[in-house]
Specification:
The chain has 337 residues and is mainly α. The chain contains 13 helices and no strands.
């Protein structure tokens, strides 16, 4: 919300804050690379670097809203979320291999370098010209608050995101416990899952631009439900099946997330894009961690770990039933059709 309202002179209202985050990253990871033992300084640097991540991530999200035309929201989010998965897949393997040959200081420093590069990539994007109409205002918030889509969309994200708990924060521990695999196999499994996410996100992003947001959300939710069912079928002793499920789950999760991220953008007007996108993201995280996580934790002792994976499916179904009550992007029909 702060960056929406307060640009830094002629430099804009996004890029200066991204640069501040880059400088903070460089300082924090430079200090972290010299610390070999747990200490209060280590904790402080981690906290400050996380705050820098919040600033960078929030402003990068807002910048994409500023520069992306509505008919390309899907492609933009498909590439962004997909590359996130690809980065996680390649980074997990690369840092695991480097950990065996390099000391901790070099690895931490490299993480910091990549964090700074992430910020610098955003600075290369040109911001639209700042006008009074593009700055945050009380009127802009009031206008958004009067829209039905704002409130239905928030509830939708809370419920639909509950389905991502199965392959979000609980995914790693579930794979280890259900498939009874070691940490090396877990790393391979997660890399395969993230590779699937890259492919699923990109395909879903392109598709959502062509079929519209509502249809893309329905497709994503159906795939998320299938993913929950696939997770429930994992058993020890069959790595080929485990890897196949991981790839499909990643692809389906990527499709669902990309369609939801597209909706974030639609519901976030540029003048208050930073504040609203961050708000919707927080609601979605609450749905994943609180609604989904607590539901799975509640049902695990009752139905077992495998079947608890499908306990979040009703949330996704109810969320899907809300879509007819929202007006979202639909591609323009060609003349004469």
């Amino acid at each position: 919300a702060f960056c929406d309202k307060f640009p830094v002179g002629r430099y804009g209202r996004r890029r200066p804050y991204i640069m501040m985050a880059a400088i903070t990253y460089a300082i924090c990871y430079g200090i972290l690379s010299t610390i070999m033992e747990f200490s209060s300084i280590w904790v402080a640097m981690i906290i400050i670097s996380m705050l820098a991540w919040v600033i960078a991530d929030g402003n990068l999200d807002a910048l994409t809203i500023d520069v992306t035309p509505p008919e390309k929201y899907g492609l933009m989010q498909g590439v962004a979320w997909g590359c996130r998965g690809l980065g996680a897949a390649l980074g997990g393997i690369a840092f695991a291999l480097m950990a065996a040959k390099m000391n901790w200081s070099i690895i931490v420093a490299l993480i910091g370098v990549f964090a700074v590069i992430e910020c610098l990539s955003g600075i290369l994007m040109r911001e639209p010209k700042i006008t009074k109409e593009r700055l945050a205002s009380i009127q802009a918030f009031k206008k958004v608050a009067k829209k039905r889509e704002t409130w239905i969309g928030a509830l939708y994200l809370l419920l639909a995101s509950a389905g991502t708990a199965t392959f979000g924060p609980l995914g790693s521990s579930y794979f280890v416990a259900q498939a009874r695999i070691d940490q090396t196999t877990l790393g391979i499994t997660l890399s395969i899952l993230n590779t699937g996410m890259f492919i699923g996100s990109f395909v879903a992003g392109v598709l959502s631009d062509r079929i519209g947001t509502k249809k893309a959300l329905i497709v994503g939710n159906i795939l998320a439900i299938i993913a929950c069912g696939l997770l429930a079928t994992i058993a020890p002793g069959n790595l080929s099946y485990l890897f196949t499920v991981a790839f499909l789950v990643g692809a389906f999760q990527g499709a669902q997330m990309t369609s939801m991220l597209r909706m974030y953008m639609e519901l976030s007007p540029p003048e208050i894009g930073g504040a609203l996108f961050a708000t919707y993201a927080s609601i979605a995280n609450a749905g994943m961690v609180l609604v989904g996580g607590l539901t799975i934790s509640f049902f695990t002792p009752i139905v077992g770990q495998a079947y608890s994976m499908i306990s979040v499916v009703p949330y996704v179904i109810v969320a899907s039933m809300m879509l007819p009550f929202m007006k979202l992007y639909e591609p323009r029909k060609a003349k004469g059709t």
